[in-house]
Specification:
mainly alpha
Length: 298
């Protein structure tokens, strides 16, 4: 039991990887009919309700006595991660598919580690640096992967750019709250991030010229079903377990183990979404995961 407890953060991080991988498949199916902004707003408001009910059950207060600085830092993290990063993530997913996204997502670990090194004073070894190089090389390989006639090279590169920006924004949002995670209730931290993300994105959306088109995309029953299931699995369960992993181990280790989700996404995309498994894709995913584990071992 003591061994399990001492590795609780690592266990949470791997479990999160599996759950999140399946959620990506659900979100990909939802994205076929639901606009990325609408999907993000929808999953945030549903998650807000679910987490608030969880807080009530366990006796947590939403407006707990805390310094204004804590509220602000978690709100900023929510705007970066739940509003901006998640919208870019859905845009990338719709554009390049789950299989290629799995490769691009491996950049999450290098971004987290670099920011942790710069701002949290976590160390980087030669092995970790080599792992980061392997991941970057794997992402560069995705630019050479043929993705069907419906997606031009320029659109592929745009989708990859959205993915990279999403990962970078998420990493910043995580690193700025890492020093505070051990000082606040986990459910409270999640709820504040979700509320800030939803409010900021909703305000932006109502000023967009295509706001009616965005909101009307939620009316599709088929897409709504995938949106609900993706939210429960990906935003509720995965987010809870993800932050728990961040809370009980270092940001570098948690992010490296989280990255194993790329393998599961790659497999689920082939089995469920029928995305092609090519030699180059397989080599890229192997290379990226090898880089992740070098980062972890380092």
């Amino acid at each position: 039991m003591q061994i399990i407890y001492s590795h609780l953060g690592q266990i949470y991080s791997i479990l999160c990887a599996i759950i999140w991988a399946f959620a990506i498949i659900l979100f990909k199916k939802s994205g076929e009919t639901v606009h990325p902004i609408a999907l993000n707003l929808f999953k945030n408001i549903i998650a807000i309700i679910l987490f608030y009910l969880t807080m009530v059950i366990f006796g947590y207060q939403l407006f707990r006595p805390a310094p204004l600085q804590q509220y602000l830092i978690f709100a900023i993290s929510g705007i970066l991660g739940m509003a901006i990063a998640d919208t870019l993530f859905f845009m990338c997913l719709n554009q390049i598919g789950a299989g290629l996204l799995a490769i691009v997502s491996c950049l999450h670990s290098p971004f987290i580690i670099t920011l942790s090194f710069l701002f949290l004073h976590e160390t980087m070894t030669i092995v970790q640096i080599f792992g980061v190089i392997l991941i970057i090389f794997a992402v560069l390989l995705t630019m050479r992967i043929k993705h069907g006639e419906h997606l031009s090279r320029s659109k592929l590169l745009l989708g990859i750019l959205w993915g990279i920006l999403s990962i970078a924004t998420t990493a910043v949002g995580v690193v700025i709250i890492k020093p505070y995670l051990n000082k606040v209730p986990l459910l409270w931290a999640i709820e504040i991030r979700l509320i800030a993300g939803f409010i900021s994105l909703f305000i932006i959306t109502i000023f967009l010229p295509i706001r009616n088109q965005i909101f009307s995309s939620l009316k599709t029953i088929r897409g709504l079903g995938y949106s609900i299931s993706g939210t429960v699995v990906g935003t509720y369960l995965a987010l809870l377990i993800w932050l728990a992993g961040m809370k009980y181990t270092s940001a570098s280790i948690a992010s490296a183990l989280n990255q194993t989700s790329s393998v599961f996404v790659f497999i689920f995309a082939a089995l469920i979404l029928k995305e092609k498994i090519t030699l180059l894709r397989t080599f890229a995913i192997i290379l990226s995961i090898a880089g992740v584990f070098l980062v972890f071992l380092g």
